[in-house]
Amino acid sequence: MRKLLLVIILTIGLLMFAEEITITAWTVGPDNPSYYRFDNLKTAAERLNKILKDLGVDLTVKVDGYFDTTDWSSFKQKVVFGIKSGQVVDIICSGHDDIGAWAKAGYIIPLDDYVKKYWDEEYYDFIPSLWEATKYKGKIYGIPQDTEARPFYINKQVLKKLGWSDEEINSLPDRIARGEFTFEDFIEVAKEAVEKGLVEWGLYHRPKAGIDYYQLMISMGIDFYDEEKAVFVYNVKEMKDYFKLLYDLANTYKILPKNMIGTPWTSVHKDVTSGKVLAWMGGTWNWAEWKKDYGKTEEELQDMFILAPVPKFKGRGRPNTLSHPIVYMIPSTSKYPDIAFLLITLASAPELNMRHAVESGHLPIRWQQTVLPEYTKEFIMVEGTKLLPYSGFIPNDDMFNLYNQIIFEGMQMAESGMDPEKVAEDVAKRLKSQLKDRVVIVE
Amino acid sequence: MKRLKPLLLLFPLLAFVIIFFVIPVVLTVVIAFTDMDYSFVWNFVGFQNFRDISTDFIIPRVIANTFIYTFGTLGLFNLGTALLISLLTTSISDRWGNFFRTLWMLPRLTPSVVYGLLWLWMFDPTEYGLVNFIRGLFGLPPQDWLHSAPMWMVIFANGFIGASMGMLVFTAAIKSIPEDYYRAARIDGASWFMVVRRITLPLIKWHLLFVTAYQTLSLLASFEYILIITDGGPVYRTEVWALYTYHNAFSHFRFGYGAALSIILVIIGVVSALVYMKFFGFESLMEKPKVEVE
After folding, report:
1. What family classification does the UniProt entry report for this protein (chain B) (predicted)?
2. What string of DSSP letters covers B55-117?
């Protein structure tokens, strides 16, 4: 802490001729409850200003910018065009998956030296696996802001109505985690629940492009990225199985709506929280959304759901969840990268990050947070943390967004009823045409 | 100085056209021959983007959608409904005519994002959408038109706005037809339909040409309501060429590919305009009159 203070004074000392420095931060939600991504930076500035005032330094640091709640695509557009057009921005808070493209294009700066400088005081207790999500070609480009897990939310009231005992229900997450209850088993339960009229649908997944559906690929044992060669791998035979699964869920078993993709988010959350769906492939942040935006209480949600990893398939794959850490990055256009990093460091204080995690349904990024009283009080935090051992990350590759879009297009086609084999072949052609030598097609 | 004066007076407009039209068009043409992406690097790749367009399996669907959307909206609303409204509202009293024409102008006066969101809320597939709520009052189940009939939804959404422009042009044209023609026709016992067919329509031929050509180009280039209401979905069922260009350029950051797509759209637009002018006999409109009037 003393070293941090000294560095603060020395850094600020160099800028003593300035009376006020504005640090501009662009932060993304897009979910409403994640507003602390921006507000914690403002609190960090307040704390920094108090230190400066106490030390008699005539300088004020002000945080400007915004918290974006539109959608990922719009936010990323704003960032890319903003940086390229020379807009002054000092901190960007976005998904770790943007690191690949933005680092390659030179939009963000490596932070290894900064992290090393404050390691002993601050960064030593960040959860180690999170650093993997912040790297591009071995260098750190982001500071973890939060992480989450993507649980398989199962409506236990529906299981009760199907005749499951409390013991069977409570042991289900563990049985899924051990691979004893597979996705095929889930499909049978979902079909039964729909046929008996207990639910309208057996499964919902996200209706817009994202990363959640890679969990099904991992459950099927499909490997889609070669880390060593930094290329995407598209195995046509395996992907025919994947698209056939989606086709069957919507068209054969009819447990997934054919129009799942494109359904408004509000309709999805209303249906899930009103018991119309047996299982929801969502995120831990949904818990906070359901309480804040959909009027659900903690008791109602705990009565309704059990949380588990996404089940594996018989004889292949593994039960899994995906984490998508959000990170703070410093653009290459920043005029005050040292101060920006100081603010990020101060904003990452355990109690500040904890208030964000509690408010928005995310998980701790530091071990110190797990001993705070709020941690054990929050059901979603404890249950979500249990899923982290099954977690993986999507690759920090600059072509990931394009690859992801093409896979998502294939999903839409399969679920709408197009021949899954043709979909798999068309997706292969499209990937080869657009990603060129960054994808390996395996027939 | 005398020679320079016209140029000086035209300069502000010329500068505006050059900066906001000519330069972007030139840049777009140049970018179409690069593989420019999020890194904004000018890497020239020749005709690769156009080759990629020819092998893009989404393109046939996009072409079909563009054709259906453009000519569906044009025929049903921008031309058809516009003409019908102008004919009907000029056949009744001015007071009521103005009233109905003003009603039809309201969608055009609404900001496009607000208008698009209103359509989404009205046609929300759950019982919470306005239309489904009303259906619920009659015991009918909710319908998901945004998924079951997305092309109709975007045609209607665009059409309610598009009809108003044609309505204004045709109304002005109809009102400028000398009243004597109508009096003579009524004296001869012509019905309303005969009057429209034999007098009104032939005399507003050039206005029909203008609205048809202008609205075709406008519809070819428009996508904002489709973006807001269906975003080209579900599964590309409403992805028109202009929106596909936008998605490639600004969602996928494939600026080179997007620029190539937009050049093809420009070519299609120019060809369409030339075809219309031939069909409507534009040359005869621009001919010098054979009768000299002193």
Report:
1. Belongs to the binding-protein-dependent transport system permease family.
2. H-TTHHHHHHHHHHHHHHHIIIIIIIIHHHHHHHHTTS-HHHHHHHHHHHHHHHHS-HHHHHH
**A208 interfacial to chain B (CB closer than 8 Å):** no
Query: What residue segments make up the domains of chain A, in order of their start?
Result: 2-148+324-392, 152-322+399-442
Local confidence band at A328 (pLDDT 50, 70, 90 cut-offs): very high
In the stretch 411-430 of chain A, residues with CB closer than 8 A to chain B read 412-413, 416, 418, 426, 429-430
Domain span including residue B207: 61-238
Residues of A in contact with B39 (CB under 8 A): 101, 104-106
Percent of chain A residues topping a pLDDT of 70: 97
Counting every residue written for chain A, the total comes to 443
Phi, psi of B45 (to 5 degrees): -125, 20
Q: How close A424 comes to chain B (CA, Å)? A: 13
Residues of chain B with pLDDT under 70: 282, 284-294
Residues of A numbered 318-337 whose beta carbons fall under 8 angstroms of chain B's beta carbons: which are they? none
Domain of B174: which CATH number? 1.10.3720.10
Report how far residue A225's alpha carbon sits from residue A220's, in angstroms, rounded to the nearest whole number: 15
Q: Who wins on pLDDT, A236 or B5?
A: A236
Is residue A296's pLDDT more than 60?
A: yes
Instruction: Assign domain A152-322+399-442 to its CATH superfamily.
Output: Periplasmic binding protein-like II (3.40.190.10)
Q: How many CA atoms lie within 13 A of A96 on its CB side?
A: 27
The CATH class for the domain spanning A2-148+324-392 reads alpha beta
Choose the closest CB to A430 out of B57, B125, B144: B57
Each residue's pLDDT tens digit, A260-293: 988 888 889 999 999 999 999 999 999 999 999 9
